[in-house]
Structures
1.
Amino acid sequence: MSNQSNYPTSLFSSNLTFKNENQSGGALSIAGCSAEKLVKEFGSPLFVLDQEDFYLRARAWRAALDNSFGSGQLYYAAKSFICVEVAKWLKELKLGLDVCSGGELAVALAADFPAQDIEFHGNNKSEVEIRKAVKAGVGTIVIDSFDELNRVATIAKELGEVQKVYLRLTPGVDAHTHEFISTAHEDVKFGFSIASGAASEAIEKCMSQSSLKLSGIHCHIGSQIFEVAGFKAAAERLVAVLASFRDKYSMELQELNIGGGYGIAYTKDESAISPDLVIPAIAAVIKDECAKAKLALPRISIEPGRAIVGPTTTTIYVVGTTKSVKLENGAERRYVSVDGGMSENIRPALYGAVYSAFLANRSSTAKLISSRVVGKHCESGDILISEIDLPADIAAGDLLAIPATGAYGRSMASNYNHIARPSVVAVINGTAREILRRENEQDLLNLDVNQPPRQLS
Ligand SMILES: *Cc1c(COP(=O)(O)O)cnc(C)c1O
């Protein structure tokens, strides 16, 4: 078994270094590329992705799966961050890909990603998306509702295909962050509830459709999870479903997908959950429960997104305006504005996500003062870091690095205020290249049309 201590659990990517480092930061380099040179070449804000770190994490999760279960599949969650180049890396790594829209599927297909290794998620896939997926030969469609079950069955029949499917179940385990909550019924838009009986009804319906091949069940219990208890509880409940399936149909479902959600560090106080810790723990429960129920061990798959790409990427900003304000309690707060904000990192504004920041062009010995890192958008809530101690001498022109921005940063980016979305640069062995270019003003104007009005037929 691989060594647990080898897995990088800090908020920094593996090949990130600060020269003349102190607690404020230092002259930042990632994979031998200096932040200053990167910004000079590619502009800012800039997502810098440590490519070797991506491979290292992807391989570590894959290896943990293989070590614990002998085989299995890792479906990388495309929604965390995908582009054609990253899809090619995943293909090279022989991993699977979890997509949840026609757009994400289009990226995978543009990278010639093997369709049979794609899994298609989503609670409201359109007929167009389903047809496209079935035609492309997508390996697995994860069915999320009764409506969709009928839609997929009808479309597959029409196209003369038997589509392999999973059913997404809600096991009554909700694990967002450090604890998990066990609930009897699930007030969420995703999946079929096990407790209410919807799951077994969906299984029956699936089994009665000749154009569907039910090969397994799926659950995803949340995101940014640090405790294995939630995964264990979910695994137990899913194995119980596998057992009742066997009792009813005298055959066994071959596959069990336990989703993603593995937590990473965003601050120096946090530590990512290691694949060598969580996967064997889940494996022990699944093996135990399967043995008790006299079931063969199903093929296990997982869907990490954040855990693979999150820590690989650091955003580099150029500092602009700073100002100090007096708070009601007499204390002072300094606002440090950077040249991006909620358009390339919506997570703090959307759900209070916490990040850290470091000086990236130099270190400072100035006193650390209470600061708030804000963007340039016309919105008071455009805050990247609500409260952080930063050196008092930070000024316009300094570079500020925010680590662990690889997941749900660029992928959730918007053009609010007509700000162009930043580029993503992959760095490896002292070299750098754009894998997603920065938008320009022409890109922003390209959608504006000048059409005469016309009657609709
Ligand atoms: C979002 C999501 C994932 C990935 O979650 P991470 O927190 O990025 O690991 C995996 N599976 C499903 C079904 C999801 O919705």
2.
Amino acid sequence: MINVTKTFLPPQEEYSKILQRAWQDGWITNRGKLVQELENKLKGYLKVSYLLATTNGTLPIQMAIKALQLTGEIITTPFSYVATTSSIVWEGCNPVFVDIHPLYLTIDETKIEAAITKKTSAILATHVFGNPCAVEAINSIAKKHGLKVIYDAAHCFGVTYKDKSIFEYGDISTCSFHATKLFHTGEGGALFTKDENLYNKLFYHHNFGHQGKEAFQGLGINAKMSELQAALGLAVLPYIEEIMGQREKIANKYSKLFSNCNIQLLKIREGITWNYSYYPIILKDENQLLIIKKDLEANSIFPRRYFYPSLNTLNYTENSTMPISDSVSKRILCLPMCFNLSIQDVDKISKIICRHL
Ligand SMILES: *Cc1c(COP(=O)(O)O)cnc(C)c1O
């Protein structure tokens, strides 16, 4: 059986060895040594200003909306995982969708200004499959209209733009370290900002607002990463270059095999080092997708319809039509992509797909 992804697991004894330190201290959460060590190592590896480890990748989006005190309307993309939209609604704001670019699949920056009203407080966009949004254009629009910018960068571990971590763009960026993501801690995530004051605010927010044991700085929630999660991250991190290297090989092999097929592949933006986090293909129509998916499944290969459905169709958002996102979400399939997928399997998967084109 070949799934869309397979969690990279380091040798169990390496995890146990790191975990042993938590056992010795009898300390398994509340920002112990392992969380602090993971934060420091990630900061060095990613070259970011401020990083806060969290218990998943969804709470950071909610906390970003809260910390920036956003109200009213937030301009966002319909082509993302549900957490992007649900976080906006969860925080009592209204998502206003702007359609995506047909090739990059990120929010179409040329359509943002038309969606701005007096109630707009921010832009919350997703860097899709590690492919960044047009961050400079979005930054200019935000400056011009006094809006905040949050990036759901759940897919972006290791991605850089113009030699700088993509997490350094926007007021706040968030990442997910879920088991299905490139770098993971089982469940986990992080918040990134360049602003020290904002970091301090987020820090209080993620720990109930505690200021020492007996005082509270303000409102907070519990988004702390545990030592068990951090230990797994510390065990995975030494393999990250190898993981990305393998994925690069797999992605290049897919692309080579598809070069003669009539198939739309993800267009990666210029100036990027990509992380090969996903390998999506965009088919002619939904019918073709369903035929291909069925054939792959008959061969024990399980791709995933991702992102599907388009988020503007969620029953808790105002119905709007987003022609490009509606269409792409029905035609896009993420192919198996993981550390130990063999080149023979890539061959097999591509052959099955190409015979339907
Ligand atoms: C995975 C993902 C999330 C949610 O992250 P969790 O760690 O599962 O909470 C949010 N946004 C996008 C785009 C994702 O892919």
